[in-house]
Amino acid sequence: MKTLSRLLLLALLAALAGAGGWWLTRPKPVEVVVHEVARGTVEATLTNTRAGEVEACQRAKMATIAGGRIEWLGVEEGDRVEAGQVLMRLWHGDLDARAAVARAQLATTRQRVHEACTVAANAEREAARQAQLFKRGFVSASAEEKARTEARARRAACDTVQADVATAAAQLTATETERQRLVLVAPFAGTVAKISGELGEYATPSPPGVPMPPAIDLIDDSCLYVKAPMDEIDAPKIQPGLPVRITLEAIPGKVFAGTVRRVAPYITAVEKQARTVAVDVDFVNPDEARGMLVGYSTDVEIVLATRAEVLRIPTSALREGGKVLVVEGDTLAERTLVTGVANWEFTEVVSGLDAGERIVTSLEREGVVAGAKVLARPAQAR
Fold first, then answer.
1. What single DSSP character describes residue 27?
2. Which residue range or ranges hold the CusB-like beta-barrel domain (predicted)?
């Protein structure tokens, strides 16, 4: 009997030792951060690859057609100008002299017209008198013919001089037109952004293929829009009319509503940078853009689609193949989802999860695999 009791005691001690060893060596549950599946809004969006810029709807980088010395500069940088206002004029004394000669020639030619045409009218009246006298037999046929020939010659001389008047007028117009090649006139109302050159300096027009700084850079800052580069892969998804959210580094915390106006019909390739397509975005409320400076850096977020009140999960919780880890009791189980609209923050769940289920978001932790025992804690509210 004592032997049996001793054996039972030894067996109990062995069982307790085994249980204690298992307890000490058992796998500890992995602490994971979980997110409870709920409903909300999910948007499919695109963002620019590089910073965009605020642009003026009208901007003219103007230069004179011909080169010359700056004789008159009527504006300063920052000045407001009206359409048609003269901004700059180059020296054109030679053209003024040529115009004066052309005007004198025109005046002289007009005097010759008066003289020649008066003589022609007298010759025509004389020819008419000779014709009447010939009918009565008072003059010979040769005298009457001579009078008619003289009248025709005088009339031709009158017509020739009148043509000379048109030629002289055209020469004067050509000289005055050539003078306009040396004058810069504002094509629209705006602000003078920059002036290249000072009074007395020589202004040189930009030859073909050789970029030169404009003499005057004029911008219409009453109408602004945003130009942003988007990745070429996203170009087929972008269409005019899509809503846009615009943010500016210079105005933090403010989001401006916009609309896609134009998608460039070509891809821009910049060395050592991604190939992009330029997208023009208008402000929904243009008054909000007043006071912005042309050239401000901007970011745009184009909204491709919006799903309201749908099941959604953090996009970071998705694994390859559309899989997630779901907490079932104290164990992780893998699920494959059918997803819909997505962005960098949230992804729509079409099927595979129900509201209230908990999924793991801390996928980077060691031991977070299907079948693992876990200790779940909710994500901190943001």
1. P
2. 226-288
CA 41 – CA 326 distance, rounded (Å): 22
Provide the residue ranges of all domains of the chain, joining segments of one domain with +: 27-40+309-378, 47-56+222-307, 93-179
Pick the CATH number of 27-40+309-378 from 2.60.40.10, 2.40.100.20, 3.30.930.10, 2.40.420.20: 2.40.420.20
Residues 6+ apart with CB under 8 A from 378: 33, 34, 35, 36
CA distance linking residue 326 with residue 323, whole number of Å? 10
For residue 172 the two structure tokens come to 């004067």
How many angstroms separate the CA atoms of 220 and 88, rounded? Answer: 18
Amino acid at 349: V
Please give the chain's pLDDT, 382 residues, in tens: 556 566 666 666 666 655 555 444 556 787 888 899 999 999 888 998 888 999 999 998 888 878 888 888 888 888 999 999 999 888 877 777 777 877 888 788 888 878 888 888 888 888 888 888 878 877 788 877 887 888 788 888 888 888 878 888 888 787 777 777 788 899 999 999 888 888 887 787 766 666 677 888 999 988 999 999 999 999 999 999 999 999 999 999 999 999 999 999 998 887 666 789 999 999 999 999 988 999 999 999 999 999 999 999 999 899 888 999 998 888 888 999 999 988 888 999 999 999 999 998 888 888 878 888 878 788 765 4
CA distances for 4 relative to 7, 12, 13, 164, 374, angstroms: 5, 12, 14, 147, 43
Sheet with 30-36, edge to edge strand ranges: 331-336, 323-328, 358-360, 30-36, 374-378
pTM here is 0.66
Q: How far apart are the first and last CA of the chain?
A: 69
Rounded distance, CA 325 to CA 332, Å?
6
Alpha-carbon span 35 to 30, nearest angstrom: 16
Domain spanning 47-56+222-307, CATH class: mainly beta
